Amino acid sequence: MSRQAKLLQLLNEEIVACRKCPRLVEYRERVALEKRLAYRDWTYWGKPVPGFGDPQAQLLIVGLAPGAHGSNRTGRMFTGDRSGVFLFQALYDAGFANQPTAVSCDDGLRLKNAYIAAAARCAPPDNKPLPSEILNCRGYLEREIDILRPTAVLALGKIGWDVFLGILKHRGAIPARVGYRFAHGAEVDLPEARMRLFGVYHPSQQNTQTGLVTPGMYAKVLRSVRRFLEQDLILNAEHTGKRKKTLAQGRGRR
């Protein structure tokens, strides 16, 4: 197991045990007991949902919060609801997942060069976490950023966008969030953080069923993400090659 994998495992264990927000604890556990009729035979997860994906990922995906009968039921980000159906198909088409479907934690899904986190880790009433609840979770996302050191960040919706920029502001990597306007397809270079931030509308059922978000719209942004990551790999390889050549020349002059 790699160092990143070990650190993420320890962090995820801490996330699962979290009880910082009484409102969310009460709601997630009540939903897990009452269940939805279609899932009455399921044993709901009913706890905070940890991050999921490739521990060596260059791409960090930041969502909003678990769905009450999706991730709160299955225990894995975007698994078991309509948002996940849309998102994982898009990630598979773009080469970031090994399969287009996600129904349970043991369905064989693996992410490739991508890791999914969220602004809030517990299912909130009406899908709306309070600002104080998001703040309680922010430290988990900060630590994921520190462990992964992603090259690209994809924010699924304005809240994910704002939370990520808030972390950078807090760290002094940007002067303020003003000037980084969220939009579907937005791209922002963040040289102090050595990252590029991409924005897309959230793949919620409301957005996908009304046509505000389409597969083509996601495909276009994910192509941009993949091109950026491929270019970054090439630049890093060239830089490494030049550095090795310089060191070799230096040794040869001794």
Structure in words:
The protein has 254 residues and is an alpha/beta fold. 46% of the residues lie in helices and 11% in strands. The chain contains eight helices and six strands. It has helices at 3-16, 22-34, 71-74, 82-93, 131-148, 158-170, 205-209, 215-252, and strands spanning 52-53, 59-63, 114-118, 152-156, 187-190, 195-200. It has a six-stranded mixed beta sheet, with helices on both faces. Strand 5 (187-190) and strand 6 form a beta hairpin. The N and C termini lie far apart (40 Å).
Please write out the topology.
Elements: H1 3-16, H2 22-34, E1 52-53, E2 59-63, H3 71-74, H4 82-93, E3 114-118, H5 131-148, E4 152-156, H6 158-170, E5 187-190, E6 195-200, H7 205-209, H8 215-252
Parallel strand pairs: 2-3, 2-4, 4-6
Antiparallel strand pairs: 1-3, 5-6
Helix pairs in contact: 1-5, 4-8
Summarize the structure.
The protein has 254 residues and is of the alpha/beta class. The chain has helices at residues 3-16, 22-34, 71-74, 82-93, 131-148, 158-170, 205-209, 215-252; strands at 52-53, 59-63, 114-118, 152-156, 187-190, 195-200.
What count of structural domains?
Answer: 1
Which overall shape is indicated by the principal axes computed on the Cα atoms?
A: globular
Q: What's the gyration radius in Å?
A: 19 Å
Low-confidence stretches: none
Measured distance between first and last alpha carbons: 40 Å
CATH class: Alpha Beta
Number of helices: 8
Structural class: alpha/beta
Spell out the helices and strands N to C. Answer: HHEEHHEHEHEEHH
According to CATH, the homologous superfamily is Uracil-DNA glycosylase-like domain
Q: What name does CATH use for the topology?
A: Uracil-DNA Glycosylase, subunit E
Number of strand elements: 6
CATH architecture name: 3-Layer(aba) Sandwich
Oligomeric form of this entry? single chain
Indicate the proportion of strand residues: 5-15%
Main sheet: strands, sense, barrel:
6 strands, mixed
- Portion in helices: 40-55%
* Average pLDDT level: 94
Q: How would you write the strand order of the largest sheet?
A: 1-3-2-4-6-5
